[in-house]
Design a protein that fits this description.
By secondary structure, the protein is an alpha/beta fold. It has two domains: about 180 residues, 3-Layer(bba) Sandwich (FAD/NAD(P)-binding domain), CATH 3.50.50; about 160 residues, 2-Layer Sandwich (D-Amino Acid Oxidase, Chain A, domain 2). It is about 30% helix and about 25% strand. It has ten helices and 20 strands. Strand 10 and strand 11 form a beta hairpin. The termini are far apart.
Length: about 400
């Protein structure tokens, strides 16, 4: 390959695919998207893809709010469906978190997001499948729910190709090319390729790519396990996505009485080599999830395990992504560090980042996501006393 591009995006997960699509749609002439395997083959494809706006900063709440609108508008804009289902989302809150959850609800309501605590009578009426013991409150978002991470990503890839973007699948990027304080392109097995801007959206593999050009990237790759269960047909089951902070699990419907169920914070996060990690779930993890699931949602007693697997999170020190250019380094942008939030905010991040790159148009709050915050020692901090809310 001897072609030169205005921009190259490395990684066709949700963030990379959205960024490439919006760069091209925004008028950039020559845009290429490189993926070492296939779209959504990494962490995106195995995301639980729960959609909720309940965050402790207005920035992430608004990014999710924006992404929901983008998911909803995909059929008209791109001619492909994201699989977004407005099932609703609820958050089971333990007593120690009630005050913080209430502060979040007030924050989100001030952003125009439809969210509230359910009344005790509503909980009983809406949730006959719930064991309410130790549940101090339930936050409800009618706009929440879930989407299909693979269909969403493939929709952006399709849209990118339809408007003239250059897609390169099964094409690993071996290194970034750098000259002094500028990134000038990428290196593939077919040789060097020049670009005016390179976007590092390689997810858990972003750190290795950055290091190929001696670019610091404080990013962990951690193993994230999930399970899939099928409930018996004679019992009522949830029809909404649920984040359960009482028992530290989450679940979301897959249809046909099947659910993705995983562990939420607090839990151990084990660092792994993204090129060599165990992709099947541990049996003790499966057993632990099953115990928590059956305790909180009794109708799942006797549920059949359909699948269990492990994927990867790319995790930043403050659990907020690294997005955008850096001071003192031209021709390079980060678009990584989803830290478990990546799917639900990736569509909006791609659109905003494309505008930042092509028009230098960025609001102050979004610009804080730049890696520059590491040097400035200005991390994001959530209202729950941690950064994972």
């Amino acid at each position: 390959m001897s072609q030169t591009y205005d921009a190259i995006v490395v990684g066709a997960g949700i963030t990379g695919a959205s960024t490439a699509y919006h760069l091209k749609r925004g008028g950039m002439d020559k845009v290429a998207l490189f993926e070492r395997r296939r779209p959504a083959a990494g962490g995106t494809g195995k995301s639980a893809a729960i959609v909720r706006q309940h965050y402790s900063t207005a920035l992430l709440a608004r990014l999710t709010q924006e992404s929901i609108g983008m998911f909803r508008d995909m059929p008209d804009e791109i001619g492909a469906d994201s699989g977004y289902v407005r099932s609703g989302w609820c958050f089971l809150v333990p007593k120690p978190m009630i005050a913080a959850a209430g502060a979040n609800v007030e924050l989100l309501q001030s952003c125009g997001i439809d969210t509230r605590f359910l009344e005790p009578g509503e909980i009983a009426d809406r949730m006959p499948w719930l064991n309410p013991h130790d549940v101090a409150g339930v936050v409800y978002e009618p706009e929440g729910g879930y989407a299909d991470p693979v269909r969403t990503t493939e929709a952006y890839v399709k849209g990118f190709g339809d408007i003239g973007g250059s897609l390169h699948v099964n094409t690993p990027v071996r290194a970034l090319l750098r000259a002094g304080d500028s990134v000038t392109g990428i290196l593939t097995d077919d040789g060097p390729i020049e670009a005016g801007c390179v976007v590092n959206a390689a997810g858990p593999w972003s750190k290795h790519l950055a290091e190929s050009a001696e670019i610091e990237l404080d990013l962990r790759s951690v193993r994230e396990q999930d399970t899939v269960w099928e409930a018996r047909s004679d019992r009522p089951i949830p029809e909404i996505s649920i984040s359960n902070a009482v028992d530290a699990i989450y679940l979301r419907p897959l249809g046909q009485r099947r659910f993705v169920v995983g562990r939420g914070f607090p839990k151990d996060y084990i660092d792994v080599d993204p090129y060599n990690y165990k992709e099947t779930a541990d049996e003790d993890f499966v057993s632990d999830v099953q115990t928590r699931l059956e305790h909180r949602f009794p109708p799942f007693a006797g549920a059949r395990r359909i699948d269990s697997y492990a994927a990867l999170y790319d995790v930043t020190p403050d659990w907020y992504p690294f997005i955008g250019p850096r001071s003192g380094l031209s021709g390079y942008c980060d678009a990584c560090g989803g830290s478990g939030h990546g799917f639900k905010i990736g569509a909006a991040i791609g659109r905003r980042l494309a505008r930042w790159i092509s028009e230098n148009d960025v609001d102050e709050d979004f610009a804080r996501l730049s890696y520059d915050r590491v040097a400035a020692n200005e991390p994001f901090v959530g209202a729950y006393g941690g950064n994972r809310a």
